[in-house]
Amino acid sequence: MKSHSKILLISSVAAVTFGISSFLPLSSQFDNTLTTVSAKSKAKEVTVGPGTYTVGKQINPGRYVITSLSGSGNLIGEKKADINIILGTEVDDDLGQVTSYTSSLKKGAKIKIDGIEQVNFKPVTKRLKSTKFGAGDWVVGKDIKAGRYKISALEGNGNISDNDGDINEILGTESDEDLGQVTHITTDLTEKQVISTNLQQIQLTKED
What number is the average pLDDT over the span 182-200? Predict the structure, then answer.
């Protein structure tokens, strides 16, 4: 198992880097999310600016696709939300910037937005199992079928980890010995395991 210093290496860039505003169109969402809100969902679409917000007060609890509508900068989740990314309207591999982040936000979590003019939280209520994922938190059994997979970077570079410490890598489309970055990993994924990634897009290929 890799040491947690790898995660700090990438996330430290996110903590100090501020992007330049851009008005390019947002990329389309990945095929494992739908944005039709059911009557039972507590999630509610909201757009906010720079500042600090509490889930359960300014943002309803629920699962969201989070995107920048204007500008780029840091999106940080604290307490019950483990998020530390650079978010913008376009991908920037040099900064590790992504165009969206999908996450389930629990009541009491703190969300900090720094340097982004407008951030949109769009509810996701129907989860479809897929093999391609953007930046976010993905649950085996809900978003991913359990099994053995080769996980590869399709776009961008950054961290991939899980909630039990079995996965902790820097993943990218090219290997980098200085960073300890690899292009893929092979691992078993089990029910309720949570996979977190801040790459723009990864692909899971089923292995025997």
Answer: 97
